[in-house]
Amino acid sequence: MLGDQALAAFSVRTTRTHFHGGETIITQGDEVGRIGVVVSGLLKIVVFTEDGAEHVLQTVGPGQLVGNTDGQRHGHAVEAATDGMVCWMPREAWNSFLKARPEHYQAFLSVTLQQYQEAQQGVIRMRGRNTLQRVAFWLLDQKPARGTGNVPLIRIALSRRDLASLLDMTAETLCRALHQLIERSAIRLPASDLVEIVDMERLRQLGKYPRDRIAGAENPRATPFPHPFVQVASSDRFEATMPPERLKRLSEFGAASR
Amino acid sequence: MLGDQALAAFSVRTTRTHFHGGETIITQGDEVGRIGVVVSGLLKIVVFTEDGAEHVLQTVGPGQLVGNTDGQRHGHAVEAATDGMVCWMPREAWNSFLKARPEHYQAFLSVTLQQYQEAQQGVIRMRGRNTLQRVAFWLLDQKPARGTGNVPLIRIALSRRDLASLLDMTAETLCRALHQLIERSAIRLPASDLVEIVDMERLRQLGKYPRDRIAGAENPRATPFPHPFVQVASSDRFEATMPPERLKRLSEFGAASR
DNA sequence: CGGCAGATTGAGACTAATCAAGAGGAGTGG
DNA sequence: CCACTCCTCTTGATTAGTCTCAATCTGCCG
């Protein structure tokens, strides 16, 4: 699809970088002259306010973009929630690439608009919901990787503190909310970072989760930017960030709990 | 700047529409095959949740965009907060226009990214701030049109209920917050929709307003989309939405209060 | 002047933050 | 292999902040 010239000029400038959990990818206030496509792993967009507090605004998964091309300073930082990989390209390469192949503007815009929408969704999920509902809602919004025996299983890649921040509550409140969901037998906690959805319908009620979002058709995370050179692991973020030994332990648990 | 052909095909399809306060511009869930540039007045982006509650997410002023071009359904509605004007163009015209003149992609992206950033800012202003601080912060974020005697004066175009929704609180709490700001002599209320900033510094402290935002340089609302055919009233949203009789009454008030 | 809708003010209920303390888990060094 | 430390997670009691409900007030229109 790409012209030879554009492709050559472009792919030379492309850099894949591995990152590790906790690492800072982009520092707040920096001018980052490059843009990155997340290939695997999970990033988090955080903001440090003047009083030193850290706020997690959004998570960025495979196929989504970080950085900006307009030479503006970053109003937020980007940190790694898990290990993973980003594919970077410098601003000039990016811009000249887009200029040479305007048809890719459409894809770029689409992903940008999608992340914009996701930011709006993030606000909406906060509104008119108490802490319990927000937690339930978030759980339902995660890609439910099926565990052993087709039970929906969710890996919480974020720390309690980070997830609490994302959901705009304290870690203590998040903890209480999770255990309230357990008491009402909507979920179980095989491990502190694993959530097993026991009763999907009850969880929906508790989270005031709209019917039309159930299929995930409204705001699918899976319209990844069609990066020409990188295969994006979009479908299985679960396995991508799940260490093998955990999977093993998990299946043991599943067998034991039956 | 525009090629004759593109210009001709484009300007024919452009439609200016006046809107009145309270009017619904875009219905939630609609597929709107067009995009609009706000010329004057103020729009609000609202979401109706399943339980019937209405949430104001954002306001859209002159130079900013509404609608989308990707044929997707709207996750939110757009309503008029004041009287004003939008300049519409159908999706096909828009897309072919951008295709013909790729250099405008940059501007389009820029405005989109800006609104994206604004959405993020909207989240941040909520975080780690109580109701009083949110109100103070919002006031400082408004374009302070100077009133009589160079006193910063702000017109609240939104109803109490809408503004409260935007700031994620109840109308009652908003009201109390405003009056608390008055008690601490940071502001005055010449009329229920007019705020006079008496002590800017105190208001900043009460709103935890960062220093670097004071100049408004960080996130200026004034990088309007350079619409080729419409003159955008970007600088004076105040006067644009201020009925003449109010202005007159206001100056009388200013004279009387000295 | 009466009616109406939005804005204001007040009192009580309830949610979530804060402060404090205990439990679990991973890594380190002897 | 075990004790020790550090850090995160969890749990409990208290407090502060907002929401809710209700009543009153205000400006506006016919």
From TrEMBL, chains A, B:
Keywords, comma-separated and alphabetical: DNA-binding, Transcription, Transcription regulation
Coiled-coil ranges (or none): none
An example Gene Ontology molecular-function term: DNA-binding transcription factor activity
Xref: InterPro entries: cNMP-bd_dom, cNMP-bd_dom_sf, Env_Response_Regulators, HTH_CRP, RmlC-like_jellyroll, WH-like_DNA-bd_sf, WH_DNA-bd_sf
Top-level taxon of the source organism: Bacteria
GO CC, one annotated term: cytosol
Ranges of residues in domain HTH crp-type: 129-201
Keyword Signal annotated: no
Official protein name in the record: Crp/Fnr family transcriptional regulator
Organism per entry: Sagittula salina
